[in-house]
Structure formats: structure tokens, C-alpha cells
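Exercise 3.2. Students should predict the tertiary structure of the chain below and write it as C-alpha cells, then compare their answer with the key that follows.

Predict this chain's 3D structure.
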Amino acid sequence: MREKTIIPYGRQYIDKSDIRAVTGILKSKWLTQGPMVDKFEKALCRYTGAKYAVAVSSGTAALHIACLSAGIKSGDEVITSPITFVASANCVLYCGGRPVFADIQRDTVNIDPEAIKKKLTKKTKALIPVHFAGHPCDLEEISRIAKDYNLIVIEDAAHAFGAQYKGSKIGSCKYSDMAIFSFHPVKHITTGEGGAVLTNKKELYEKLLMFRSHGITKEKTRLINKNKGKWYYEMQTLGFNYRITDFQCALGISQLKKIDEFIKQRRDIAENYDRKLSKLDEIILPKEKSYVKSSWHLYCIRLKNHLKRKSIFDKLIKSGIGVQVHYIPVHLQPYHRHKFGYGEGNFPVAESYYDSCITLPLYPRMGLAQNKVIDALRRLC
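Answer key:
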């Protein structure tokens, strides 16, 4: 029996130039720890405007070494959003710290700066704002809070490659200490799995490099014992093997050449959804603030009657439309309930959003598949 084709909520776009880039490296002398990693990092810096980039094996690895470089340790608290993937909080736990959640804004679904202020304590060390669905957070206000309380800001920009805030590219770190990206296949560009940390601070950059590769350095100026042979290296801290391969970076460089077209297509699809779905009374559409340019990683609608969500979701899936829900609030996950005592009612805006949201398919080269999504929603709503 032929399997039914499902329209995914997101997917990569790979063309012949991407395949040539990867096969070229597979035929070369370097598969990993070669020159393509540095080239990819420089390309990321040129695109975002940041001074330094460290490419790693995943977005989660990027978050982890960013927290390590920020000095997060046992007893520290880090404030983040409950509407995000679990990695935004796990990276704090990996370092022995405690993730603290602050509720979201109703319109953007991003962390609310006013809610951040209410969660500040003497233990607060850092903020991890999440640019949900590609829409940048209010970075100016978050930066102001961070400066007032001497906090580190790590942008979780896994959704926001190519987005802009008040004319600055997300990843420029104009308002933060570090920003992380993910290059998973559903993101704006892909390296298969992969991620990166960007920063403008040399001291953080040097820490990130060491945490990426076992805590080891070969840099002569950083060695404790400087009069050894060329073979010599030192493990100066406890790091990890979070390295990315050369063929992944070759794919990333090739994908990056198409990023402007990818973003344009995503924005066109979002605008088409806006036009075609705006007359459906049962649906609340996502918003884009006038001072940002969203990169539209996700297009998340909300149902005015949340009790219909499961029924509509199931019918869309049955129709071959791969909708999703982004996200189950992190504080409602069993781990956080049991470890920290969270439960329903702790973050009412986030929980209300979760109860009513559905993520619609959105990806480059989506083409006529979008019409099928729109027609199905018109029938159901």
C-alpha cells in the first residue's frame, strides 16, 4: 500500500551546488579539523557583523559552551522563556545552574522584559532570551536590564538566522554578549546537525574555542609551558568534543550563499498566510513588530477556542498536513515539575498560548503545498 505523502512543517532545501560542495570535501584530504571550519566561521561573521564565530556540532552544544564561557556554575540562576525547546534550559542545568522562567508577551510569544524584572534575584547571572519563530525579542530593553544588574546576555537565536532588530542583524551581538544559531535541517540554513556561537568579545571567543575541543589549546601565547616542541598541547580546562566537520561546513557555506533568497521565500509564504487566513474568525495570526524583520522560522496560529485545537490538529494530520505544536512549556515537562515543583498556572500567558497554538508548514520551495494548507484550514475553521 502506498504511503500517504505528508507536507512537513519544515524541511531543508538542498541543490546541486550544495552536493558539489560536500562531495568536493569528501574527495579532499580534510574531512574534519580542516580549513573549511574557519572559512564557515568567517562567512558567518561577514553575514551577521559579529567579530568572532565558533562553529560546533549542534545548537545545543552552542548553548552549552556559551553558558560555560559565561561562567555559569552551581548556585547561579539564568532567566529564559518557557516557550522554547528544552535545550534553552538544559544548557544551564549542564553547568550546574538553575533555569528560571519568565512569562511571555501575548503578541510576539517572546520573553516579556517586565516579567524578567520580577524574576531577578541576587543569584541571577545571565539572561537567555529566545527569538521565538524568528521574531527578535526586545533586545534593547533586555540589554538595559542586563546592564543595570551586571548580567550576561546569551541570545538563543536558533530560530532567527537572517532576522533583524532595529536595522541590525541578529547575531551581530550589538545588544548581547553572545548569540547562538542552530543549523538543523528545519532551520534557515543547514549543515545537517550543527550550530555556532557568535560574540564580539575576544576573551569569550578564546574560551569558546577551548570548550569546543576538550579544553585543549595549542596556541603558543596561551601555553603555560612555552618552550616545548611543535607537538605540544595543553588541556587547561574541562571541555568537550563539540567539533563540526569540514563537509558540514562546506554545506553551510554553500547554503549561506542562498540565505537572502531563503528568507525572502519565508517572508512571502508568511505574507500569503496573512492574506488568505485573515478572514477566518476562529484564528489569531502571528504578529510582526514594526521595528523587526522576522526570518519566519515558524508560522504559529492560535485558535480562539482552544478546545478545538486537538480536533483540528488531528484532522489536518489526517489530510496529509504535517502541523506541529511549538512548544509544550518547558516548566510543564516532568523533569522540571519534579525537580523544581512547577505546575499549571505558574506562567499563565505561556500556558494559554500553548493550549491554543498550531504550527503551519513553512519552508523554501513550498510552492502549491501552501494552498492545500490554506484550503484545509478554511474547511475546518
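Discussion points: The chain has two domains: 16-256, 259-380. Residues 259-380 form a domain with the Aspartate Aminotransferase, domain 1 fold (CATH 3.90.1150.10).
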